[in-house]
């Protein structure tokens, strides 16, 4: 179970790759697609379903799914799935499962809702904490102090100075995403945008094309933050600084995954100054003032490769 359609697609791609070798049949089902098609597919034997909560519940309630042999439930981004956004849906899903089942929760944060859920459903669970490993490792974080009206100019300067392979730029609203994407295009840089108010089909296409490297920059709202992992992204820019540490972590965590290096640049206005310090403290991380020149070895991977070779020869 995953909270967004994009994540469902990404996870299913990997799952399909891996399951080739064990002959498992994988199905992905999310809102915004034909329910009828899903029902047809589910009648063939399926071993693994990757789903968003709304659609799978729908199938369960229609008695389409036969859950009595489904003995494993995995919640990815559990903190999100157990948040108000999916109020009570997971309780319902679990009510369809057999008594003897295993539940696995994966989460970057550990809020009270996750703890309560654990106490309610998990018997003698193992807890594994890899947060020190994950999170912001490999990502060098900077801030630039700017006025609101200087932001686009500042972004233009960053584009001209940085060696961007692919970048993701975050804004705080749908309108600002569209406006900024327009500005960036006018500045002469290639740019896509994605936000929650676009049709699912459109979102999928943008996501797919960006992933395939058809465009260098992507402007988006927080729709896009969770668990999305595009290794070619080496620069993340918070055009609008987030208010919550959790949002920050999900946005920035992106570029540093799997040892890939990246930088994060935060445009900070006077109004953001307290949020900056608070988030730094909450995450126990350092966000440094942006230097005149950013060392390429921090985020450009040819350098990373050279380093590796050097280490090997040593
Ligand atoms: C699904 O099955 C249950 C139990 O067999 C039954 O009570 C319920 O009415 C069925 N729902 C639908 C929509 O067919
Ligand atoms: C988004 O950022 C702009 C500029 O900093 C600000 O004026 C606006 O109030 C913010 N909107 C939200 C929803 O936080
Ligand atoms: C740079 O991005 C392209 C796609 O845009 C990708 O194919 C390539 O692997 C990326 N390079 C690195 C070093 O990540």
TrEMBL record:
GO terms for molecular function: helicase activity. The keyword Nucleotide-binding applies. Residues 1-128 form the Helicase ATP-binding domain. SUPFAM superfamilies: P-loop containing nucleoside triphosphate hydrolases (SSF52540). The keyword Nucleotide-binding applies. Residues 138-298 form the Helicase C-terminal domain. PROSITE patterns: DEAD_ATP_HELICASE (PS00039), HELICASE_ATP_BIND_1 (PS51192), HELICASE_CTER (PS51194). InterPro entries: DEAD/DEAH_box_helicase_dom, Helicase_ATP-bd, Helicase_C-like, P-loop_NTPase, RNA-helicase_DEAD-box_CS. Its main location: cytoplasm. Pfam families: DEAD, Helicase_C. It is found in: Cytoplasm. Keywords: ATP-binding, Helicase, Hydrolase, Nucleotide-binding. Belongs to the DEAD box helicase family. DDX6/DHH1 subfamily. This is ATP-dependent RNA helicase me31b.
